[in-house]
Design brief:
Blueprint: H1 6-14, H2 22-60, H3 66-76, H4 83-87, H5 89-98, H6 100-129, H7 134-192
Helix pairs in contact: 2-3, 2-6, 2-7, 5-6
Length: about 190
């Protein structure tokens, strides 16, 4: 309902900015859209990878409800740090009903999948899509979860991507770059005198 006419909401939001900064704010919003699209694309690639490997591994271990567990692993992968840990609980409970050795096998399978995703795929994909440091990711999750609960946990990374874009554009490009340039021209003029 709200996303039917996003341009109208954008125009109303731009009215919150001073008139001299509205064009620049519109440019920054466009960069936020691109950054969120890149982040979402990277998360989708990671989730498909996790879902596929989870499905293949659980199928090889002959765990029941393979498709449901694989889809759940992919969906929960959207919540970093907590989602992958949560996604292993249900296959382990199903494995407990089948055979005790399968509990260990499922745990090892998910450990391998998460290590592959965390240390190999995510750095490659996310470095190209969005560059967020792991410490920033964790701090944003703690911050947004503290103030907004489970919804804050789910929205922590998209909000962090938007905040990062706004900080880069306003603080670094609009405030610090002109300041640095004015200092360098002052230094050059004092050296010339």
């Amino acid at each position: 309902m709200f996303l039917v006419n996003t341009q109208a909401y954008r125009q109303v939001g731009l009215l919150l900015f001073p008139s001299f900064y509205r064009r620049r704010a519109d440019e920054i919003l466009s960069k936020c859209e691109v950054a969120l699209g890149n982040w979402f694309g990277g998360i989708v690639i990671n989730s498909i990878f996790v879902s596929t490997l989870s499905g293949l591994g659980l199928w090889a271990l002959q765990i029941d409800l393979v498709l449901a567990h694989a889809l759940l692993a992919g969906l929960l992968n959207f919540i970093p740090n907590i989602g992958p840990t949560t996604s292993v609980v249900f296959p382990i409970m199903i494995a407990l009903l089948d055979a005790p050795w399968k509990i260990v096998a499922v745990g090892i399978l998910y450990l391998i999948i998460q290590n592959l995703e965390s240390y190999w795929l995510s750095p490659i994909v996310m470095a190209k899509q969005v560059s967020l440091l792991p410490a920033v990711t964790l701090a944003s999750q703690i911050f947004f979860t503290t103030f907004f609960g489970i919804l804050g946990l789910i929205l922590a990374l998209p909000l962090t991507v938007v905040a990062k874009t706004w900080i880069e554009e306003t603080l670094f490009k609009d405030i610090l770059d002109p300041w640095k340039n004015s200092l360098s021209t002052e230094t050059i003029s004092t050296v010339d005198n």
